[in-house]
Amino acid sequence: MSEAPVVVTGATGFVGGAVARALVAQGQRVRVVVRRGADLANLEGLSVERALGDVCDAESMRAALVGARGLYHVAARYSLWSRDAGDMYRSNVEGTRTVLQAALEAGVERVVYTSSVGTLGIPATGSGTEDTPVAITDMVGAYKRSKFMAEAVSREFVSRGLPVVIVNPSTPIGARDLKPTPTGQVVVDFLRGRMPAIVETGLNYVSVEDVATGHLLAYERGEVGRRYILGNQNLSLGEFLGLVAEASSRRPPRFKVPLFVALAAGMVSEAASYVTGKKPQAPIAGVLMARKKMYFDASRAVQELELPQTPVLVAVQQAVRWFFDNGYAR
Description:
The N and C termini lie far apart (41 Å). By secondary structure, this protein is α/β, with parallel strands linked by helices. 43% of the residues lie in helices and 15% in strands. The protein has a 7-stranded parallel β-sheet with strand order 3-2-1-4-5-6-10, sandwiched between helices. A 3-stranded mixed β-sheet has the order 7-9-11. The chain has a domain at 6-174 and 206-232 and 295-310: CATH 3.40.50.720. 46% of the residues are buried. The chain is built from 11 helices and 12 strands. The radius of gyration is 19 Å and the shape is globular. The protein has helices at 14-25, 58-64, 85-106, 141-159, 182-191, 208-221, 237-248, 259-276, 284-289, 299-305, 312-325; strands at 6-9, 30-34, 49-52, 70-73, 110-114, 164-169, 171-173, 197-198, 202-207, 227-230, 233-236, 255-256.
């Protein structure tokens, strides 16, 4: 096992937990940063050091990075709706600044920063790449805007001498999606019979385990300051739910809802959420994103990093099995 640890933020989450497990499986010494009171279920049985801290607390991040060899900054607030958008900016933008400043002071040899394909441009036709033109005005919702700004922060630190490699995961799917993520929630809603109709849109899907492997490969082989899309297969929502139906032996939705109907439902859903405090079933940001198919090309990561391409059906089967086994659906 490596003498100096690598530090992982966000390891209690879906992607961060997968990264931590991949590092442990590789025999590396891993130190995870966890907040007080965090749900540690994703770390059960995992041989890792735990450092109590918060990405917005500079002192705790400096302490977590003492003696560290490298850093995987995966932590982020990921939601298409929030009662307090300011909290999302504090976590995703200022938190990234705080973490990377601590890494710069610690003199780590390499940082992998987890961004999102949500920060990338989407062409009118075809698939987006790491170099498709984009501006912050193209970002829909607080989450995408905050990640766009946070990625700019990471490039700022590259110019200051911090060796940061940027990875842009597409839509991860697989086991251990505890919260679940917005995509996992779509699967759960389908399994519970709560999705009689859909808005036809499209995303790029990828196994969460491949995303984790992509992080490790980016650390080992990635070019400093360069982006790498960690993705796999472009699928319409109907095609994706067809895979979920195949994995669960259930029927896929038969009807499609016009966008304006979904937008109206989203407005009602969000209005109710401000009263109840519960997440809306149809966030407006999610509906607006559905106007364009978010298709991406992961060729750079496949060619330069040798990113694995596990069939999406396999990842869907793993997700469905885990949701059933853990009581999310019957």
